[in-house]
Amino acid sequence: MTRFPALLISCIVFFVTGKTSAQAVFTNRSVTPPLVLLDTVAFPGLRAYSLISSADTFIASPGYRFGGSADGAGIVRNTNGTYTMAVNHENNFSASRVTLDSSFTPVSGEYLLNSDAGMWRLCSATLAVPQIHGFGPTFITGAESNLENYAHAIPLFSPVVHDSLTSANTLLAKGLGRWRIENAVPLPLATFNKTVVIITDDDGGTHGGQVAMYIADAVGDLQNGKLYVLRQTNLDWREKSVLPGIPADVEFVEIPGYMAMTGAQIDQYATDTLKAFQFGRPEDSDYRKGPAHAAREIYFTTTGGSLLDTVNRTLWGRLYRLQLDSLNPLHGKLTCVLDGDQKNPVNPGRYLYNPDNVCATEDYVYVQEDPGGFWTPQAAPYLHDACIHQYDIETGNAKTIVMLDHHRHTPDSMIYNTNSSASMYIQSAQGSWEYGAMTDLSEVTGIQNTFMLNIMVKTWFSPLFYNRDGGTLAPFVNDGAMTVTLTGVPRIKAKAPSVPSSTICAGDSVTLAASGGSTFWQTNGTSYNWYTSPSGGTPFFTGNMYTTPALSSSTVYFVEAVVSGDSSVRTPVIIGVNPLPAQPVITVSNFTLTSSASSGNQWFRNNLAIGGATAQQYTVTQSGFYSVQQTIFNCASPMSEDTLIVISGLEEYRAENMLRVSPNPGDGYFHIETGLAKADRLALYDLSGRILFEKENLVFPATLDFGGFENGMYLLKAESAGATYINRLVIRK
């Protein structure tokens, strides 16, 4: 066990996945080009950049060289803005740690575990972190090449390199059991509020491979829990008994006394006694991202590739969805969502070729291939270089996003296509390279739709690549590997937002609220664009709340949600506009007022609604100015013209002819005209009918001073030869 230099440790112990002002910049960082081909037609924003490779050297750690067959990986951001990455080197039986600066440039590296401690091929891995899993940061990795293997739980910031079996024994997570471990994936702590680990057993032998679950009540306890294995409730162990697209009832059953068993005994007991599934090599697994409950949905691959049993197990490979019960993780449903064995043209999984690693996001599952596990003449039409397929969780469709680029016919072909001594060019066989882990960087870097991808360049050999980890168990392994970064990889699928339609009245406006936009109805990070057309054009407004202008006719808007760079289809929002009813007209007969509107009336006296006065007719009992308004479908008409009714003593005065008063309102002096040359009598009343002013034989036009009265509304009446002229007069000083 070798201790790392103290200065190196001091710069990385400040762990947190926090954000700082510096931001990662994705560009080519390695001397090796990114060895991938991208489908930029289906994914126009997709880009690839080299990050690190076996050809790179570092001033800060001149003795370190990136190992070959890079597989499982994990990464965190430190409080000082730098990053720390852990990665398995499968064929080197080792794992290393790389430090990247705040711009995401690798600056140094060292080995956490060498071959003397790793002992077997270290494959996929999971980095447990406190913010998600409640413990760590711990790099959990197993080995697929030996049935008696335990998983290693390596502290990411271990101050020593584990370089012996004695040292490795301090890391063993014996509670997870002995398997050909491809990966051991702890679920987020919030999913079941306990430690739950999904284990995939990459075994293609007599008993096939199993999927196991470890449960411990204590957070981060990988030693003292219980171990369970997956089976169908009907005890049918055959992988192919799970038909594509049809959920099967499954359960995890306990393996009692497993801590005292060998791996072979666990294997036999699980299959012979418990009737556990016998899969064709379960490979990687990952849980769906999102809120805590999303992680109950787990995806894992079976790579197939063995001709030993093609009747009961997959040959080309499958992708499964395991949905755990919300209350009890030991129960659930298992569905084959992609099946590579069916080559018919309508099968979305027809292109699968030995799927291996898997990366699940909120709405997609990325499946990386490890092709070439078998060959038959019948397989020849389907052979291809390793691809990454995007599985759409919502639709069930799959399409290829990335393919490995072997550089077979480029000027640098001799570098990547050689024999093991690197002395001669040998064109790599189709499908001879494979992927390692694909890791979502979006949350770590704060830059959406960014990923890290490991590539095993299995025909890239160099004398410089021998014995990179310093161990003794794989000294003659000299293949190269690299890691690339990908940007523009869809992570969250924008869904059509919800925007309630509305009905308003002509001349009104309305505030519209958009919500939703993603699978889990997350609003954080979701924006909304508003358009006047169902497609094309530019948004006239961006935001979740939009207030329309006053509308005179029905209008349709279209709203899209934008989540993590993805735009949804547009939701039509229909604003119905009801016309306003016509202005009603009042006719007067004695004490009865009649509206021209047959329904929806509301009568007013002196601009105040009269309670219960909603019929077409209204009988007057008090003096005042009367009006009426019609309402249809909650839309109110313009108010009718005022009709003045004065009741004084035993007389009813009706304003059939109006006095002309100006200004009205006025501050005291009023100019009065009428059709008469003079009035026998002119009187000013308050609204109770009390006479406040009276003058006889008044010649028109006349100017009168009413400034001595209080502000308010009054009635002015002129009489002459039996004719009556009347109007309201408003004093406003």
Provide a quick synopsis of the model.
The protein is mainly beta. The chain has 8 helices and 53 strands. It has 4 domains: 2-487, Neuraminidase; 502-578, Immunoglobulin-like (Sandwich); 580-649, Immunoglobulin-like (Sandwich), CATH 2.60.40; 655-733, Sandwich (Immunoglobulin-like), CATH 2.60.40.3080.
Net shape: elongated
Helix amount: under 10%
Please give the radius of gyration in angstroms: 41 Å
Largest sheet: 9 strands, antiparallel
Beta fraction: 35-45%
Question: In terms of structural class, how would the helical and strand content be classed?
Answer: mainly beta
Give the CATH topology of the largest domain: Neuraminidase
Number of contiguous helices: 8
Do you know the CATH architecture of the largest domain?
Answer: 6 Propeller
Tell me the count of domains.
4
Mean pLDDT: 91
- Give the C-level CATH assignment of the largest domain: Mainly Beta
Termini separation: 99 Å
